[in-house]
Amino acid sequence: MDTRLTAEQDEIRRSLRELLHVRCGSAEVRAAVDTPAGYDPLLWAELVERFGLPGLALPERYGGVGCSVTELALACEETGRALAPSPLFATCVLAAPLILALGTEAQRARLLPRIAAGTLTAALAVPGPDLAGALALTGGNGGYTAGGGRAGGVQAGRGPDGWRLYGQVDQVLDGHSAGLLLVAAHTGGYARARTRLFLVEGDASGVVRTRRTALDATRPQGRVQLRQVRAELLGPEEEEAVDVREAFAGLGDPVAAVLAAEAVGAADRVLERTVEYVGQREQFGRPVGSFQAVKHRLAEVYVGVQAARSAAYYAAWVTAGGAGEGFGGPALAQALEALRAAAAEGIQLHGGIGFTWEHDAHLYFKRAAGDELLFGPGHRLRGRAAERAGLFGAAGKVGA
Q: Could you give the count of Cα atoms lying within 13 Å of 64 in the half-sphere of its Cβ?
């Protein structure tokens, strides 16, 4: 096993870091999150034109670059460093892999080239108590259902003019701005009814979308209401088509690996900023960073960040190679804990200014807390990994 980055992978990291350092500073991030879309379209266009970022992990036959989850994770590590708000995660990590896995050839040929070209953004709308549960990150998703209509989920009904959806999804990453919605809905009332995925245009008649106030403003969320909206089934109509729950479970590890790399990038950056600050700030006539106690605290954070980076890289590598399952959850748990610790130390060691909401350290702390709320706390991520490995008895089947 060669753990060194290839020249291509190293170039992706270096070039992205240079661009985001110039184009995605604190002022730019705060200005972007205050826009209706929640990101800077000009920066997104540059990421598309210079790096082909949306198509990084898509096959070349659909206009992508043909790289793997590993390269996508490395790219997200850099966007995480800058907390760059963009449609990258919702479109390329959550939605595009499902279209690639479940869509018909006609659907892939119609949608994936537009995603790779950056002209189409997408969002995954999953009704239910939490996205992490649906992706089988914090527990088996064998009993997952999209619910039905007024009960709090989304119901799908088939009529003479095709499928129509009714219901609501409250927490959809980029759901307020995405051009395409992938909506999980329950086909209740039909023989062998189950949860399926549907394609809905963002501006379709009957779609009402509202941006929500989120803890982490750099990862915007929207509420999506569907009022008898015409939809297209993702994949073939045949009942023997792959179960959505299996596809969700298969998506869990790649999502966790990418999120882990993103969190590591954020943790590394907030640690760098803290080290720089304590080297300049003076107390009792000497830099704060020269005190042994401060050195020890920052050294512990550094060790945590480096360990989390190793776990994130390994999870991405294993996921890309298909050599194992269940590594994403523990890597994500370790990375989120490293980010939370780095942000907390950053807030404290910046002194009085660090405790104000206006300081950037809070953006990193909110990223850690927000991701824990969306994708599960560390103990549940590790518990699910242990369950899958059979440590609590008989090994659980993926998604079961």
A: 24
